[in-house]
Amino acid sequence: MKNFRKQFPVLNQYTYLNTAASGLLPEAVMEWRQDHDLDLLISGSILKEKQGEVLTGVREAVGRFFNCAPNRVALTPNFSYGFNTLMEGVEKGKKVMLLKNDYPSVNWAVESRDFETCYAEIDENLEQNILEVAERVQPDIFAFSLVQWINGIKIDLDFLKELKQNFPDLLLFGDGTQYCGTENFDFEDSALDVLGASTYKWMNAGYGNAFFLFKQHMEDKISPRSLGFNSLQGKYKAHEGSLIGKFEPGHQDTLNFGSLKVAIELIEKTGIENIEKQVNFLASEAKKAFEKKGLLEPSVVKRDLHSSIFNIRGDEAVFRKLRSNNILCSQRGEGIRVSFHYFNSEDDLEKLLKALK
């Protein structure tokens, strides 16, 4: 992974353990963005004439990377915009299961609408909690984050397949913002009916771009009301009533979505298998070290499956000390959140542990 650290100049100044808050912008994406705006500067509307071609390429790249047909890939400016559009298209009165204290952009979008809501607890028994609520309430939809934003607890994807087998009519809506880009993921083979994600974190694509993936049957399950001229424009949404068109009513930003395509190409060049291996290695080493020092909450310690996001014990003074040592992280919940991506190393973990002494 060291060969790719040069893509991220921030690493020359800081020990960057803050991807869970904001992913780093790679030089390859920055260079593409500069070329794009230079083209806009000198060619004006000629660049706009290529808009369809650019967005088609982005859609195909996302579909290739996650194994989803391009005509079921919607491009949105962020997860919250797309998820609100999704929930606006769900029939009122449906029973929706959420995770208690999940990311606000998931829960608020549901709670602010006319749905019956129920909650499963996020702890060491996450999957069992979900199953018990599903059996008791029989919800129509389960909306959740694949990885929890505060403490990094990661849901078992194999459990979701079992859940789907037991409740075949239960629709699964996943937020992959804290997950996508950390390991290989096959959407078509997954239990999810919808996956949405902002890509400025673990996919290192910069701000202003996100995607939503849909299984084929979702065409008949939701009816978003959004519509605009751009809803009918493009290779994969040329017919009236196109599902992805309803998520893309206005002009799309070729600068930001083009950045996503370049970011995906960088991931493919690095190798998602290599990224997954490094992320899992750092997550394992960090968890062992944090557990040994008593820095983790019991619900994280008791789970075998975990992401590379950790909330460690520490107050404002500890946070300031880390920042004074050029270690970038975030205060979240009752502690300090640190997160490790593929460009991180064992040295970064050691610097953190040394500073915590």
UniProtKB/TrEMBL annotation:
A Pfam family assignment: Aminotran_5
Q: Where is the Aminotransferase class V domain?
A: 16-351
Give the protein's recorded name.
Selenocysteine lyase/Cysteine desulfurase
Protein origin, superkingdom = Bacteria
Among its keywords, does the record have Transmembrane?
no
GO function term, MF aspect, one: lyase activity
- Tell me which UniProt keywords the record has, alphabetically: Lyase, Pyridoxal phosphate
Which InterPro entries does the UniProt entry name for this protein? Aminotrans_V_dom, PyrdxlP-dep_Trfase, PyrdxlP-dep_Trfase_major, PyrdxlP-dep_Trfase_small
**Tagged with keyword Membrane:** no
Residue runs in coiled coils: none
Name the source organism. Answer: Salinimicrobium catena
